[in-house]
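Dear Dr. H.,

I hope your travels went smoothly. While you were away I took the liberty of generating a structure for the chain from your last submission, since the lab meeting agenda had it listed for discussion. I wanted you to have the full record in hand beforehand rather than looking at slides cold. The sequence, exactly as received, is reproduced here:
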Amino acid sequence: MLSITDLLFFAAAAFGLVISPGPNMIYLISRSITQGKRAGLISLAGVICGFLFHILLVSFGLTTLLFAVPFAYTALQTVGVVYLLYLAWQALYSTTPFETKNLPQDNAAKLFRMGFFTNVLNPKVAVFYVSFFPQFVKPELGNVLSQNLLLGLVQVSVSFSVNFIIVLSAQRMAFFFGQHPRWIRLQKWFMASILTSLAAKLAFDKVK
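The corresponding predicted structure, in token form, is as follows:
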């Protein structure tokens, strides 16, 4: 079983992923603002299923490859650090997700499908799984597959919780940020600080 410390650090990394602007956040906010909370929640269900798709891929394929290549951990650690710093930079200089444009009205099936493919085809999510999951897997603790699935459960729980709140409050948040633009700058610096801290923690972690 993975330690509580490892799980908490992984949860913090998952939180940094979900609060940084990207296709998933922009899509969910746009749907929630233009079609209402129900559309946002259906889209969120598709996004979560997309996460499950990524989890299955990393659980059944990546770990085997990682442990077969000695320098893979260091390479993925470097990728993870660089990627977190890139997300921090993007958080500062990208357009806020609450400045999205209207989207056309779509039925439930299409909303779910678009949420799913928005996530499955999102390179941000793929890089997160490739660069972070293997660094928390410890073969000496037992079944590697169960460890991957546990990490996946943590990541999905964090993502669902944050995105659920975003969907329910998207309209009010968009109105608030429209009336108080200086809070957008604070939001960006807050996200960038979290992501930079995670990058520093990851960079100084010891190689297993």
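Two observations you may find useful: The longest helix spans residues 144-179. Residues 82 and 199 are 8 Å apart (CA to CA).

With kind regards,
E. W.
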